Amino acid sequence: MTTRTDATFFPPIPEAQRWLKGVTFPPDRPLINLSQAAPAEPPPPEMLGAMAAMLQETATHLYGPVLGLPALRAALATDWARHYGAPVTAGQIGITQGCNQAFAATLSALTTEGDEVIVPTPWYFNHKMWLDMSGLRAVPLPTGADLIPEADAARPLITARTRAIVLVTPNNPTGAEYPPETLRAFFDLARAHGLKLVVDETYRDFHSRPGAPHDLLTTPGWDDTLVQLYSFSKVYRLTGHRVGAVIANPELLHQIEKFQDTVAICAPTLGQKAALWGLQNLGDWKDAQRQEILTRRAAIAEGFAPLRDRGWQLRGLGAYFAYLDHPFAEGAAALAPRLVREAGVLTLPATMFTPSGDASGERCLRLAFANTDSAGLARVLDRLARVEGPLATPSGAA
To answer: pTM score, two decimals?
Structure first.
């Protein structure tokens, strides 16, 4: 018997962790783990103190409202409206148990088995896994050299079974930041065909440009087409507390409420209270975190020349991610475990982000640099520049 979970692949992060078994790392070259897009440090001390006090409150240990604490929904609505320069109400906010659950709940509310969802490639692997396990068809939308999807290329992929288009910006895995005009083109395409445009903005707070990344919320009736997903986990280092959000039409949230009540009942109350406290008190700290990520981004861009000289290419860079095209004859699926052994660097091959048989997956690696600093990234670049191996035949060569 084939089950829904049999329909998809094993989670990439645990799979990559297996490459560490039996490998020892000398003291002068410890492992640098760039496999998972998550900060490795706890929340700031001020938040930890506030969370300690929250533990003394009885309500922290009880079920809360299915769509989230009213105060958190209202605060996020205010934050969202301020950031995007458009009205957003608490009734358009739903709190979920992490952004992955926000995606799962949204797609469950929008689709039925056999439906189709257009997803640019490279795609976020957990999105693909959920579509597989839901009996949905993920329709790949290849991106070009700039890793930016095009609405004109998506148009011929729309069929009678298409229900949504999913975008992630800043993108996981590539780091690409989709321009406002790209998002507008996809919004117009989705609206013209009666589809939902689902935009995962987990990494919004680390965008290289300040201010709103698009103006879609200024469109009258935006929530009949647009669904935004968000995460508190990265910006406030609350990954273990699982707090995400859906910003959407209240009628859609009413359907999502069914999913939420069945799967989780509510997002963890402590995490929700911490997210609320962060929104109210950590504005300057959040800005500093963004600047730190931008500093690391610059360190990769400025330090990449030795790798470029050895045939590597920096395809994408943004938020927590660098997307590298390697020069070797072997594919990325074989190269990534070799980098653990020979360079002490754990990263993911792009085969984990692309459809089976997509040759581009074997050419690229994703580096997620949330848990290292600029000095650590300099060591990564130096180690990669020292890796040897047979080189790929240049495209077009005999």
So the answer is: 0.95
